[in-house]
Structure to design on (228 residues):
């Protein structure tokens, strides 16, 4: 069945360093890949997404890359700040259903 | 700032009781998703609707869970009878729907359910 694997499960970085979270998906028909940030006790919030016709997308300190051949996509956060500390989820979906298959999440800790 | 709303935010109930959770999607969104979040299983899709019609409820235990959309502004998730293993945070999310290019899903604040 459809599956999304996410690594690492936990990531600790020093403030100002970069953080990279990687995901792989199983269904080659997937064509939409969002990333969500969830702070403790809060709802998941969409922070960036990418569609399969694009290889890279950037929004200030956040970027996402997609390699459709390898079925990999990654989230890159540069110049990390303590407020970036949260759980990050990747997901994949197909346009004909819209339903998201989530990765297991990465707990990011940014140490001041 | 349009947001998905959910009620109640917290629910504590005893095993065997009925639980009903409600969701109001963003006005104009025609696709509604129900997710369950636990530490062990992460975010799991339970069911989803488009234009009020159920499209997929394969993630839902059929014997005790039911989901409906009585109208375009209300989605409900019911558990009867509830069990301790149902303790989790239940999220509703809404989207415009792929047919309208609206892939983005926006989550509600969740209902934290504790079954004792």
């Amino acid at each position: 069945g459809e599956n999304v694997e996410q690594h690492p499960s936990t990531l600790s970085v020093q403030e100002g360093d970069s953080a990279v979270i990687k995901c792989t998906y199983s269904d080659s028909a997937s064509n939409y890949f969002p990333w969500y940030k969830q702070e403790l006790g809060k709802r998941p919030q969409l922070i960036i997404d990418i569609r399969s016709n694009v290889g890279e997308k950037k929004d200030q300190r956040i970027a996402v890359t997609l390699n459709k051949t390898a079925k990999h996509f990654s989230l890159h956060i540069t110049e990390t700040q303590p407020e970036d500390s949260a759980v990050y989820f990747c997901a994949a979906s197909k346009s004909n259903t819209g339903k998201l298959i989530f990765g297991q999440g990465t707990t990011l800790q940014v140490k001041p | 700032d349009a947001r998905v709303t959910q009620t109640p935010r917290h629910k504590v109930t005893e095993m065997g009781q009925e639980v009903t959770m409600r969701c109001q999607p963003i006005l104009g969104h025609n696709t509604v998703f129900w997710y369950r979040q636990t530490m062990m299983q992460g975010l799991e899709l339970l069911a989803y609707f488009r234009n009020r019609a159920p499209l997929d409820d394969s993630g839902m235990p059929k014997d005790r869970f039911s989901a409906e959309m009585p109208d375009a502004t209300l989605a409900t998730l019911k558990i009867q009878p509830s069990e301790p293993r149902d303790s989790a945070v239940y999220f509703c999310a809404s989207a415009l729907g792929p047919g309208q290019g609206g892939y983005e899903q926006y989550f509600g604040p969740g209902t934290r359910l504790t079954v004792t």
